[in-house]
Structure formats: structure tokens, C-alpha cells
């Protein structure tokens, strides 16, 4: 089986040979030709078979002819030069980067192009007089790097990058290093004459360095603690802010009244380590978006037929009631409308969960969100985009809520107890010394508050969870942020959608029921199917055994009904039940393709959903510690198969609308259940938002998935149980880290309570505890990662 | 020993210069993407084909090729 030189797919029997290389299709060969003519064959040297088959559909980018639309997409325009940022989901390797940065070789109008690989974006500077945005996009699509332009890009303005964490890290690190040097003389206090002379100078320099750290780099903690106290919550930032404040005040007091050298080194070190933890925790997958709503699913513009039946591109928001729209093959229907064309096959699997395309006839209502499969249709608009059924789904209040504010992390709950415990110890210790040696009271009180460092506690979670995020990401399980891991470890109920989530649309299982076909009948069947473009015909064609290709005497296709082929006096009809002349029980739910030869009914091929690999095991293993259920928007056709596949007594619900799913989860949460929702399409959007953790399964992560907390690549579905167990282990590691930090705190408190806290002790203890906790957390999570497949 | 004032001043000024360089580097957007430059630097340098005529001919050909594949 030869492999295509360009994309690596199998060539099957139809390999095209060009320049002594094999290609699977004309598209791949054309891209190779383009590269070869323009001296870009280094593309294949960097990474073999790095290409993708170009997918160009006629008229798809006509909306870029409109100046109004391109103005919103272009970042910079000075009349001659324009700069545009395009999102290209197909970027996946170094060859992609190379060829896209050499775009100027493919068209002289391109001045410069730069790829941002983590974001999968390309920034192209081009001369608008030589090339237009539309030409550029078409060129990219032709070489297999089609940009993804959606309504979201049109609406969203430019976003400013937030670099403040880097600035704060810089300030804190810079000050920390310098203060360490300046405080060395006082560590080794030898009573030396010259050291004494210049003590003041060094101390005031340290004070000066610490000012930007406390007031700029550390201000997040003060703000967060203040907000927490205002709403009555004691989160982890309260003891941190308290510690910083006490450190700063006591140190300044000491140098003003010449009582000591202060603890500026520990102060800046504390803030520096905390910021490092926060930076590490902020791992984001910039090429994915967890915030997508219907706008990223919709196109920017559609083709409208005006009064004179001419086609014009119109922006989706401008569609009015009564407009006639032309929807081409594979295009999205953006508005609710009435079908004008005689017939249509609309795929609603993403919107309602129905696995088979719905047949519509002229005069039927069609809803927004469906994808037209198979031919172009004309519809008349009933409602504008903002009023259509699909957009109404997003008006549900669940989308306004921010899930993160209501969840209290483990760190915060520990932080609460920590603050109370520390304050209690400080007060007890201070009152003790009040009776024995009142000069030490203030010293001991502040020392306890300083040394009882919450920084180790504050670092445990960021490093553990940050590392887990990265490990999961390598296993193609992308989570929005580290809170999701904590939530995932707590779930006790899991709800699964059916279509697209536990079934895969990639292939079908086809079984045959009826009389066996003879060899000639099979050959005739296969040859008849070969001529048809219908998706069901193609699937069936792949299934049948190899037969010689023969030309038919006669072939006819009846849209929406079936196909007929004739050869050597035998004819075969393939299609719907009444087309082949068979009386069918009308409640038969699954899709079936019936066959009759010479007007004699033979049997039918039944198409079943193909379930993902490992569904049974995942359900069985998860059933040990969570309650399971399957909620589907599809009909009951698969009920029997599901009952066999899943553990006994798993509740199954069918024909559920998107709002039904949402309500179901709400009811569970009302009895305090922590719900995980696993879904994939727009019909799951409400449920994903309502649940404690919403995961979207994606066959191709570059393509739209609804707003969720995590995206799981479809090939990794069978490891879902392992990922949840790993999250629980991560939480245990955090708890171990807390215990470890407690030990350090006990040692430090010994020094503080007895009034022996010297700056040098604090300066050693704090970094030591922080670094050891970070090391432990990282090593432990790496061990978990290794165990995960 | 009063030379220590001078030494401290010089060392602080040098440190501040490096700090300023850091801030300028971050502002210029260098650190927004820390992965792609690592790949970019491994690309081989191109051998520049000599005559201008050859490059003109190439441009002609590439425009033609684009036009030919118009849908």
C-alpha cells in the first residue's frame, strides 16, 4: 500500500504518479506541483508527508470581496500595506512553519509572514495593490492551509496581550537578587568597624529596592485579600497579604529606629516565589478556545439571491425576514427558514444530536445550525440570526454565570484554617511573653506572623496542578485551567451525550438482513453504488468485497429515493423501502438501505452507530465510583445496543432537547451532586455550562467545539477514567505538600515563639521550604504522568 | 573606604541598565511566543539563486500557476 508523498494517506488503487512520486489524489499532487515550481521542496525534507489535502469549495470566500467585512478583519491598513492575522488550525509541524513563512515565494504581493505556532496564527503583511485578502486566503486554502474565519473574528476587536505577570516577575526577581547581596554583610555580623559604619547605607538601599516589589509586584495579593474579606471569604491571599504587610512594616520600623536589619530579603523572596508559582500555573492552550459560542460556529456571510435572482454576499447580521438565501453543499444554515427547493438533506447532529441527516421537502421549516449535505438549496428566511432557535439557546442565564467564583479550592479552604491558627498562636505567644518579658512581645507577635509562611501552601497547588495541566495536554486532554482538575477530582455523577460523544461519525457498522445476494448481484450492486455520490452509498461501497469494475448499461439516480442500475438484463434498485417496493413497518428507527433485484425484494443494509473504542470499559470502570447516565437528542433506535454495551441499569434518555439536558443537570445539582457532563455539539452547550465540569469530545480539535472546561481528543476517550483517577491522585499530592509545609512551619514557629528569629534564619527557611515543596510536587506529578498510559 | 559609595552606585546603575533592557525586551513582544523561534532557527539558509531574470521568470510562472487553478 503506497503512501501519498504529500499527506501520508494510503493511495489505495488510484495512486497518481507524478515526478516519480505517488499521490493519493489530484489535490495533493497539485500542492506538490506548486511547491516544486516555486523552489519550496524543502518542505518535504523537514518533515515527511507533512501536507494536508486541500479542501477548496467554490465560492466559499466570496464574502471577502466586501470591503466592509475585510475592514473588520484587517489589523493594520495604511493604503498600500495591510496586515492581517489569520488563524490556521492546520499548522502542526515545522514544515508548516517553514512554508508559511516563505509565503512570499508563492506570491510577490506578500511582503512578510510570521507564524505563531502555539497560537496557530499567521501574521501576513501584504501589498493590497498586488494581492487582495481574498486572493491570499484562497492561496492558503490551495496549499492545504485553510484559515478559519468565523463570525467571532468579525465581532471581536483586537485584544491586548497582558504581559503584567512578566513585568512583576522581573521587578521582584531583580529586587530579590540585589537585596540578597546587600544583606550578606549583616548575616555574618562580626562586629566589624567598617560594617557598622555603612550599615545604614545598606539598609536604606534594601528598603528602596523593596518598595516597587511590595507596591507593584505584590499588589495583586492585597487586592485579592481585600476583595475576599469584603465578601466574607478567607481565601489563601489573606495570610499572604498579612505576611507581606507585617514583614514590610516590621522591617521598615527596625531600620528607622536602628533596631535591626529587617527582613527585606525574605519579603522580596516570598513575593518572587509566589509570582513564579502563579506564572507556572497560567499554562494556557492559546490555539484552543474554551469560550466558543454559536458565533464561532457561524460563517460571517451568506449568499443572498436578490430580486433579479443574482447572487450577492451579505453579512449574516443583515439577513431580514423574507430574504432568499442560497446554501451550498456543506454550508451552514444561519437562520430559521422555509425550504424553497424541492428536497434537502440536513445534518443536525451538532445541534440536536440526531445522528442521521433529516430529509426536508419544499415548504418544510428548517432550523438554523444544520449543515446542508449534498447539493445546494434555496431557503426563505423566517427569523433573523438573533431570533433564531439556535441563538435563543444562548439566552439561557446559565451562560452569564462564571463557574469559578463559586468554587472554593482546596488551597482556599486550608488558607482559612491557616489564618485562624496563625493568629491564635501569635496572640497566645504574645500574651505569654507579656507576663515574662514584655520587651519581646512585639518581636514575637510579628515573628510568628512572618515565619508561619503560607508561601509553601500557596505554591503546592500551582505547581502540582500546573504540571498536571501540562501532562494532560501532552496526552491530548486540554483543560481550561487548574481549577478544573480540582473539580474533576470531586465528581460523583457523570452524564454522557450519545451522538458524537460515545459514537463516532467517522464510520458506521453495517449489517445485512435478508436473503443472500449472489456474486453477480453483488457485483452489480457495487458498480451501481460506485456511480452514486450519496454518503450512504459511499459507506456501503467501502464495505463490499472487491469486484471487477464493469460499466453499467443504464444508471439512474432518484434524489431522495435511491439509485437504479441495469446490466445484461438484470436490474438492481438500492434505496428507501418504498423505492425498492417493500412494505416497511413504519416504526423502524435505524437508517436502512434496501435492495431489490429484478423487482424481487432481497433485504436491507442497516446502518448502526459505531461506538468509540473502549466505551464499555470506561463505563464499567467509572461505574465503580460515579453514577452514570446517557442523555441523547437522538431517537430510541439504539436503545437495545446501548443496554448491551453499558453496565446494567444505566439510565438512558432519548429525544432530549438541549434545554432538557440542562434541566436534568440542574435537578441533580439541587441534591448536591457534583456533575460531569461529556458532550460534543451545540445541543450540549447548555448542559456543559451548567455542569460542574463540562468536557467536549473532539474528533478534530481544530474544529469548533462548544464552550466547555476541557477538550478531550476523540482518540483518547478510552483513557477518560484514568484521567479522572489521576486528578484525584494530584489532589492527594497537594495534601502531602501541605503536611510537608506544616513541618517547616513548626520548626520556624519554634524560633519565632522563643523570640530567636534572626533575619538569616528566615532567609534560609523560606526559600528552603518553597524549593523543596516545588521539587516534591513536580517529581510526584511526573510519576503520575508516567503511570498514565 | 568611602570609595564604597562609588562602587555601590556603579553596580546599581549597571543592574538598572540590565533591568531596563529586560523591560524593553518584554514590551517588544519577544516573549509572547517562546516556541516558534526555537523551530525557526533550525531552518537551513537558502542558497540565493543568482540572476534577477531567473527570479522574475519564477514570479511570472507562479502568478500563472495561480491563475490556472482558478475555480
**Category by helix and strand content of chain A:** alpha+beta
In quaternary terms, these chains amount to heterodimer
Percent helix of chain B: 55-70%
Largest sheet of chain B: none
Overall outline of chain B: rod-shaped
Instruction: Provide the β-strand percentage band of chain A.
Output: 15-25%
Count helical runs of chain B.
Answer: 3
Instruction: Supply the number of structural domains of chain A.
Output: 5
How much strand of chain B?
Answer: under 5%
Radius of gyration of chain A: 33 Å
Instruction: Report the span from N to C terminus of chain B.
Output: 83 Å
The parts of chain B where pLDDT drops under 50 for at least 5 residues are none
Indicate the overall shape of chain A: elongated
Order of strands, main sheet of chain A, comes to: 16-28-27-26-17-24-25
The total strand number of chain B stands at 0
Mean pLDDT of chain B: 78
Low-confidence residue ranges of chain A:
none
Q: Structural class of the secondary elements of chain B?
A: mainly alpha
Rg from Cα of chain B: 26 Å
Describe this structure in words.
- The complex is a heterodimer of chains A (789) and B (71).
- Chain A has 789 residues and is an alpha+beta fold.
- Chain A has five domains: 1-53, no CATH class; 65-149, Alpha-Beta Plaits (2-Layer Sandwich); 164-284 and 410-464 and 729-787, no CATH class; 294-393, Calcium-transporting ATPase, cytoplasmic transduction domain A (Distorted Sandwich), CATH 2.70.150; 476-504 and 612-728, Rossmann fold (3-Layer(aba) Sandwich), CATH 3.40.50.1000.
- A seven-stranded mixed beta sheet of chain A has the order 16-28-27-26-17-24-25. Chain A has a six-stranded antiparallel beta sheet with strand order 8-7-9-15-10-13, with no helix packed on it. Chain A has a six-stranded antiparallel beta sheet with strand order 18-23-22-21-20-19.
- In chain A, strand 3 and strand 4 form a beta hairpin.
- In chain A, helix 26 (720-753) runs antiparallel to helix 27 (759-787).
- The relative contact order of chain A is 0.08.
- The model of chain A has no long low-confidence stretch (mean pLDDT 85).
- Chain B is mainly α and 71 residues long.
- The A-B interface holds A 30, 33-34, 37-39, 42, 46, 56, 58, 94, 97-98, 101, 105-108, 115-119, 135, 139, 142, 161, 163, 166-167, 170, 174, 178, 194, 197-198, 201, 205 and B 1, 4-5, 8, 12, 15, 19, 22-23, 26-27, 29, 31-33, 35-36, 39-40, 42-44, 49, 58-59, 61-63, 65-66, 69, 71.
Amino acid at each position: 500500500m503506497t503512501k501519498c508523498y504529500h499527506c501520508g494517506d494510503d493511495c489505495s488503487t488510484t495512486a497518481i504518479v507524478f515526478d516519480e512520486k505517488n499521490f493519493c489524489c489530484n489535490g495533493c499532487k497539485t500542492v506538490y506541483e506548486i511547491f516544486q515550481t516555486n523552489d519550496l521542496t524543502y518542505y518535504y525534507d523537514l518533515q515527511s508527508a507533512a501536507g494536508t489535502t486541500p479542501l477548496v469549495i467554490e465560492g466559499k470566500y466570496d464574502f471577502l470581496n466586501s470591503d466592509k467585512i475585510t475592514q473588520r478583519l484587517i489589523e493594520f491598513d495604511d493604503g498600500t500595506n495591510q496586515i492581517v492575522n489569520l488563524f490556521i488550525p492546520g499548522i502542526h509541524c515545522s514544515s508548516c512553519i517553514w512554508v508559511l513563512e516563505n509565503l512570499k515565494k508563492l506570491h510577490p504581493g506578500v511582503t512578510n509572514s510570521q507564524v505563531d505556532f502555539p497560537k496557530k496564527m499567521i501574521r501576513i503583511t501584504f501589498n493590497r495593490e498586488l494581492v487582495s485578502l481574498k486572493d491570499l486566503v484562497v492561496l492558503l486554502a490551495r496549499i492545504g492551509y485553510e484559515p478559519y474565519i468565523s463570525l467571532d473574528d468579525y465581532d471581536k476587536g483586537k485584544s491586548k496581550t497582558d504581559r503584567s505577570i512578566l513585568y512583576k516577575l522581573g521587578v521582584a526577581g531583580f529586587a530579590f537578587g540585589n537585596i540578597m547581596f546587600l544583606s550578606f554583610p549583616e548575616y555574618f555580623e562580626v562586629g566589624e568597624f567598617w560594617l557598622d559604619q555603612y550599615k545604614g547605607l545598606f539598609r536604606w538601599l534594601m528598603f528602596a529596592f523593596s518598595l516597587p516589589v511590595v507596591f507593584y509586584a505584590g499588589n495583586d495579593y492585597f487586592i485579592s485579600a481585600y476583595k475576599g474579606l469584603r465578601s466574607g471569604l478567607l481565601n489563601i491571599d489573606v495570610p499572604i497579604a498579612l505576611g507581606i504587610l507585617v514583614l514590610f512594616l516590621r522591617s521598615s520600623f527596625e531600620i528607622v529606629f536602628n533596631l535591626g536589619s529587617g527582613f527585606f530579603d525574605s519579603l522580596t523572596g516570598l513575593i518572587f516565589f509566589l509570582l513564579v508559582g502563579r506564572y507556572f500555573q497560567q499554562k494556557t492552550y492559546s490555539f484552543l478556545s474554551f469560550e466558543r459560542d454559536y458565533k464561532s460556529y457561524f460563517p460571517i456571510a451568506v449568499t443572498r439571491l436578490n430580486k433579479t435572482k443574482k447572487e450577492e454576499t451579505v453579512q449574516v447580521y443583515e439577513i431580514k425576514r423574507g430574504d432568499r438565501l442560497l446554501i451550498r453543499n456543506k454550508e451552514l444554515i444561519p437562520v430559521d427558514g422555509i425550504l424553497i427547493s424541492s428536497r434537502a438533506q440536513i445534518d443536525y447532529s451538532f445541534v440536536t444530536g440526531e445522528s442521521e441527516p433529516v430529509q426536508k421537502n419544499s415548504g418544510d421549516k428548517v432550523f438554523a445550525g444544520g449543515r446542508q449535505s449534498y447539493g445546494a438549496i434555496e431557503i426563505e428566511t423566517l427569523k433573523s440570526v438573533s431570533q433564531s432557535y439556535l441563538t435563543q439557546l444562548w439566552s439561557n442565564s446559565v451562560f452569564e454565570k462564571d463557574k469559578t467564583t463559586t468554587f472554593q479550592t482546596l488551597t482556599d479552604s486550608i488558607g482559612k484554617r491557616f489564618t485562624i491558627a496563625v493568629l491564635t498562636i501569635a496572640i497566645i505567644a504574645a500574651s505569654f511573653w507579656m507576663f515574662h518579658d514584655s520587651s519581646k512581645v512585639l518581636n514575637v507577635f510579628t515573628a510568628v506572623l512572618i515565619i508561619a509562611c503560607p508561601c509553601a501552601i500557596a505554591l503546592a497547588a500551582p505547581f502540582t496542578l500546573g504540571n498536571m495541566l501540562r501532562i494532560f495536554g501532552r496526552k491530548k486532554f486540554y483543560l481550561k485551567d487548574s481549577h478544573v482538575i480540582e473539580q474533576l477530582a470531586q465528581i460523583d455523577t457523570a452524564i454522557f451525550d450519545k451522538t458524537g460523544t460515545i459514537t463516532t461519525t467517522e464510520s458506521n457498522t453495517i449489517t445485512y438482513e435478508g436473503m443472500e445476494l449472489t456474486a453477480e448481484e453483488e457485483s452489480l450492486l457495487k458498480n451501481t453504488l460506485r456511480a452514486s455520490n450519496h454518503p450512504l452509498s459511499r459507506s456501503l461501497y467501502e464495505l463490499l468485497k472487491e469486484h471487477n469494475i464493469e460499466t453499467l448499461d443504464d444508471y439512474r439516480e432518484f434524489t431522495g429515493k435511491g439509485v437504479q442500475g441495469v446490466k445484461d438484463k438484470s436490474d438492481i434498485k438500492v434505496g428507501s423501502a418504498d423505492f425498492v417496493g417493500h412494505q416497511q413497518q413504519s416504526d423502524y428507527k435505524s437508517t436502512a438501505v434496501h435492495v431489490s433485484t429484478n423487482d424481487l425484494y432481497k433485504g436491507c443494509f442497516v446502518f448502526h452507530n459505531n461506538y468509540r473504542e473502549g466505551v464499555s470499559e470506561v463505563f464499567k470502570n467509572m461505574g465503580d465510583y460515579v453514577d452514570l447516565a446517557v442523555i441523547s437528542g437522538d431517537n430510541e433506535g439504539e436503545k437495545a445496543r446501548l443496554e448491551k454495551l453499558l453496565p446494567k441499569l444505566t439510565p438512558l434518555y432519548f429525544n432530549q432537547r438541549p434545554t432538557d439536558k440542562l434541566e436534568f443537570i440542574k435537578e441533580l445539582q439541587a441534591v448536591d451532586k457534583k456533575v460531569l457532563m461529556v458532550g460534543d455539539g451545540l445541543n450540549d452547550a447548555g448542559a456543559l455550562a451548567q455542569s460542574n465540569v463540562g468536557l467536549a469530545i473532539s474528533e478534530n480539535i481544530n474544529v469548533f467545539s462548544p464552550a466547555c472546561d476541557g477538550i478531550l481528543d476523540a482518540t483518547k476517550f478510552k483513557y477518560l477514567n484514568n484521567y479522572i483517577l489521576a486528578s484525584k491522585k494530584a489532589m492527594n499530592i497537594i495534601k502531602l505538600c501541605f503536611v510537608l509545609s506544616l513541618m517547616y512551619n513548626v520548626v520556624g514557629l519554634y524560633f519565632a515563639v522563643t523570640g530567636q528569629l534572626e533575619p538569616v534564619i528566615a532567609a534560609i527557611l523560606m526559600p528552603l521550604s518553597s524549593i523543596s515543596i516545588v521539587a516534591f510536587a513536580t517529581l510526584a506529578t511526573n510519576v503520575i504522568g508516567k503511570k498514565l498510559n | 573606604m568611602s570609595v564604597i559609595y562609588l562602587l555601590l552606585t556603579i553596580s546599581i546603575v549597571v543592574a538598572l541598565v540590565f533591568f531596563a533592557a529586560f523591560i524593553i525586551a518584554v514590551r517588544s513582544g519577544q516573549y509572547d511566543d517562546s516556541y516558534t523561534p526555537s523551530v525557526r532557527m533550525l531552518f537551513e539558509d537558502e542558497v540565493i539563486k543568482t540572476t534577477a531574470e531567473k527570479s522574475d521568470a519564477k514570479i511570472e510562472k507562479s502568478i500563472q500557476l495561480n491563475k490556472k487553478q482558478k475555480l
